[in-house]
Amino acid sequence: MPSDNRGAVRVPIRRDAFIRDRLPRLEAAGVPEALLNLQYLLARRLGIPRLELLSRHGEGLSEADGAATDADLARLAAGEPLQYILGDTPFHGLILKTDRRALIPRPETEWLVDQVLACPAIWSGPEPRLIDVGTGTGCIALALAAARPEARLLALDVDVDALALARENRDQLGLSGRVDLRTGDLLAGLPAGGVDAVVSNPPYIATAVCGTLDRHVRDHEPRLALDGGADGLAVIRRLAPQARACLKPDRPLWLEIGFDQGVAVAAILRDAGYERVEVLRDAAGHDRAVCGWRGAAPG
Question: Domains along the chain?
Answer without folding.
Answer: 13-78 (1.10.8), 89-293 (3.40.50.150)
